[in-house]
Amino acid sequence: MREKNFIISKLENGWNWQDMNNKDDIENYCIEELEIPEEVIKELNYYDNAFELSLVGSSSFSRDDWYVNLQRSA
Q: What pTM, to 2 d.p., does this model score?
């Protein structure tokens, strides 16, 4: 399986970078706002006003709505 990485630098729907204090906050954003299933999140790395999201490699979710929206957000 191939790992998939995304850089997110723009938050949506009222979320602010000031609300992102740790990886748990970023994970909550991914799950709640981006609707990414928790089991496909492999790793999160936080940068100044951006984060990198790594997903487990799988082609089974390539057509899921959340994945298509994630590609547009990155």
A: 0.86
